[in-house]
Amino acid sequence: MSSITVSPLRAGLSFGARVSGVTLTTLADEQVRAQLREVFEDRGMILFEDVEPGGRLQVEISTVFGPLKDHPVPTVPRVGQALHPGIIEIGQAPREGNIVEIDGREVTSWLPWHFDHCYNNELNRAGVLRCITGVTEGGETGFADGIELYRQLSPELRQRIETRNVLYSLNLRFRDMRFGLADGFREVQPHAALQKTIDYGKQLPRAVHPAVWTRTTGEKVLHVSPWMAEGIEGDETPDGDQLLEAVCRDVLTKITPYFHRWRPTDMVIWDNWRMLHAVSGHDPDEARVMHRTTIEGDYGLGYFEGHAVGDEILEMTV
């Protein structure tokens, strides 16, 4: 049997694992692939260390956890589509995209806490990221465990949000965030290329997902995305909004995240049904390029408001 090494991501964390020794050769062993799936289910996130460069290994690691999901927008850059289908490129030229100010510092590529596909009825199973072009400072990807967030939430808020559903829309504009927007936030430059998508998203049905759901293993997961949340289903009132804001604020106050500083030999997979993730942002004068694959799947709990039919653009991940 081929061997890999598994260790905790960081002392004191309730989630995450470090795995080394993963190669195309070790992945040919079905026992190794089964072990990786077990680690993923147990820890919610895996940092693969010392991986060899190139898209072939990223695709092979991704397929351990399920079939790949392609991005529905044809203009999104593909990477080696003929050899390595399913890899997209995420990045922008210096000063090209969104620029925001957080606590007096201007950054680009900043993303607030969220889970992928919150604006769609189906949630992809997982995302896999690799850094191609890093930055001098910042550009870290943060991860937080929904199981731990549920445990940390105040008992009063936990009781009130437990059976509620949250509405989400495809509104990527940070300044439009209604819940949990970071203190000290200011939009300096919007992402002009996304405005067409934002305008189109206003015509689409809103998605509905439970604020709390229970895994087959019994753990309850607080799964609320502050980004793109519109309110509580059936309670879009001042009281309902106050509850959702209180939950988001409690999460931001008590969250115990892991922020990963990228190296060229790193690759990360996270459970989109369990984890929230965010990006710290970086100097707008620097470029940062990531390669991503998305794992297909769904937990079967989401739907569109009024049982409406969705749109192909809602299949994208951001």
Could you explain how this protein is built, in words?
- One of its GO terms (molecular function) is metal ion binding.
- It comes from Mycolicibacterium confluentis.
- This is Dioxygenase TauD/TfdA family protein.
- The chain has 318 residues and is an alpha+beta fold.
- It has a single domain, classed as 4-Layer Sandwich (Double-stranded beta-helix).
- The protein is built from 6 helices and 20 strands.
- The chain has a 7-stranded mixed beta sheet.
- The chain starts with a strand and ends in a 14-residue tail after the last strand.
Briefly characterize the structure.
The chain has 6 helices and 20 strands. The chain is α+β, with helices and mostly antiparallel strands.
- Helix content bin: 10-25%
| Shape designation | globular
Oligomer: single chain
Q: Work out the strand percent.
A: 25-35%
Tally of helical runs: 6
CATH class: Alpha Beta
CATH topology: Double-stranded beta-helix
Q: In this structure, how is the largest beta sheet organized?
A: 7 strands, mixed
Rg over CA atoms, rounded to whole Å, is 19 Å
Distance between the termini: 38 Å
Topology summary:
Blueprint: E1 5-8, E2 17-20, H1 30-43, E3 45-49, H2 55-63, E4 88-92, E5 99-102, E6 105-108, E7 111-114, E8 126-133, E9 141-145, H3 146-152, H4 155-161, E10 165-168, E11 185-189, H5 195-201, E12 207-210, E13 212-214, E14 220-222, E15 229-232, H6 238-254, E16 258-260, E17 267-271, E18 275-279, E19 288-295, E20 303-304
Helix pairs in contact: 4-6
